[in-house]
Amino acid sequence: MSTASQLAIGIDLGGTHIKAALLERDTGTLVQTCSLPTCDGAWSGSEPLFAHRVRDLVHELETSGGSGPLPVGLCAPGIAHPGGRSIDWMPGRMHGLEKFEWPAFLAREVRVLNDAQAALLGEAWVGSARGCQDVIMLTLGTAVGGAILSGGRLIRGHIGRGGHLGHISIHADGAQDAFQTPGSLDSFLGNQTLRQRTQGRYDSTHALVAAALAGELEAQEIWAASIRRLAVAAASLINVLDPEMLILGGGISTGAGDALLKPLQHYLDQYEWRPGDHKVRLMLASAGEWAGAIGSVRELESPGRED
Fold it and tell me: Among 42, 77, 87, 228, which lies 20 to 30 A Cα-Cα from 259?
């Protein structure tokens, strides 16, 4: 077992589950993992129940590691405070998360960041982007998220909004999404809009992909149109950010695999600008379900920003 000074805890606080991991801080190696349901909407007095569940998981891992208080990296949806002490903006769900002060509640060193940004840090540390300095990550799931690594550093932006790649516009005359973006990538690809986009025929992207692979013509047309839009967005991001790699993560990517990767590469072969024949590598995320927790520990090494 590593000594306490070599250990840290990563927490991935999601809308459904809380994933907690005890890691070797210098290598990102998982020592132990555990999880609990989030129970979004439940309260313990004036505090969200998920905060108490996070604290229980932290204490469980510290006990297993034979340690006193350990530093904690915590990721969650939303825009993180520049100083890394809370999620400052997350409307509509994860009630009680906004402005919740994690260092005070857990009484130890805590750094908080956005979950997609954490996933990219995990991929850059131990996953598909290991050794890379310039990477775009798109997370495809209930919604479309993302993160950007440029020159080895996360692009966070002025208020932490950097990397919300699902909310770029790919159709200027489309309906506005929840973030006011007309015709966003999220609107055309996320699971949450699928029933509307398919007139109620498919309940999930997994069902859509299964039907397409089974030879259903309508499903094949819808899936191909979705991937083409993704390729248009990806080619545009490549032009702006000039990455060496584009990583696809999230539940849709994991479930679809080659059914996503191969046609996306086909469209990128048509749309990607390749000066000097330079081709951006297209990869699936490989750090697994603990990428967010792993990346959250990596964030502990970041100098961060003050208020």
Answer: 77
